[in-house]
Amino acid sequence: MNPFIKKSLCNRLADEARRKVAKDKNYRKLYEYLNQPTDVWEHKHFIALEALTEVDSHTLKRLFGQKSYEDTENVLSKRSSKDSIAKFLNYTDWESLDNDLIAEASIEINLESQKQTFSKIEKEINLLKNQVSDLQKQLREK
Asked: What pTM, to 2 d.p., does this model score?
């Protein structure tokens, strides 16, 4: 799974889980768990997310990068897991969600590429500024 797609999917899952439990006072403790940053989530957080999404906690841990998995391309291999996630995120099916994730990822990839290009240009500009400064010093010394 593309890292940008994976990140977007994880963010959407966490945000939707937080949104759903925030509405119900009975879920106060669950909201406190899920409101923590996902990079510090532990087993209890994924059990809570499992209860909401109906996706196995081990699958969720692999998706969020909390559990190692050799086949990183197929973190979500079961159709039922994909459809449960899509349903939880208010999509009719996995394909609809996947299309949105791909579109979002292409924007992120484009932005990342532009950031790298700008960073290279900025370095070149700074190098040229230093060269101009050195030349100015040399001219003043003459």
From this structure: 0.69
